[in-house]
Amino acid sequence: MEGVVKRKRKHMTVAVTDAITARYWQWVIGLTQADFDAGHVITTDPGGSGVAFLMDPRDGPNGGTFPQRTNNMLGPHQSILTPLWIGLGDDKDGPNNNQLPITAEENYLLGNIQSHVKINGVDVLSNPFLNVDVCLKAGPTVTYMYHPPSQGPGTTLYQAITNFPADSFSFTMPANSYKLLHALPGDHWTAGFHPYAASVGLWAVISPSDGGLPSWSNGNTISYSTTVGSNSLGLNCLGTVHTYSTTITYTVT
């Protein structure tokens, strides 16, 4: 079972599905230092959805900014799948693969998560674009509490509450994977083939019209910044594993 929660918008025609996020992870896990050095950190979903994939904010510097370019790899009217804060559970994360989505939520999504999405330096629709407290309660269950309580316009929430094994996916992490070589505290990456994985996360799908533009053109900027910290909900919620803040900015070239 998967959950996609979104407000209706005329241009948002791509739902964030298990299949799309699986392909996203397979792509982003395969990125190397050479890809980052060459600016090859954007691609179009090979599965045919038409959306462009941008880099995982966890691959950006904690407390800093990370400039990137689209390098003629973004179509003028192309929608963009933007990972605001995402996590992955794989077969190395525990003895019970049926619990991979819950494991990923516990490892990566606890706390207060705020994201700003901007086009040409102007906030898309709301400020911040996303503000959510993620609470782990006994059970375990993970509860998302929004500020305001409903999601901000345009925000797509994807929860990979997958049935094992039907909706899980596999991936191969190369020995020179950027993620493996730049692992963060709490990451459990290991090189090689992984037969089981589940994705959880918070995503946005944006288009030029979100910035009042008829199309993407050279010089446009697309940025997303995410800050993760402790929530103040009480409610017997467990604290976050991560404290992180980063801004990714792509310039259309």
Q: What structural class is derived from the secondary structure elements? A: mainly beta
Radius of gyration equals 17 Å
How confident is the prediction overall: mean pLDDT? 80
Q: Quaternary arrangement of the chains shown?
A: single chain
Give the amount of beta strand, in percent.
Answer: 35-45%
Query: How many domains make up the 3D coordinates?
Result: 1
Largest sheet: 7 strands, mixed
Shape: globular
**So how many helices?**
4
Strand count:
14
H-E string: EHHEEEEHEEEEEEHEEE
Q: For the terminal residues, how far apart are their CA atoms?
A: 39 Å
Enumerate the spans where pLDDT stays under 50 for 5 or more consecutive residues: 1-12, 152-163
Helical coverage, percent range: 10-25%
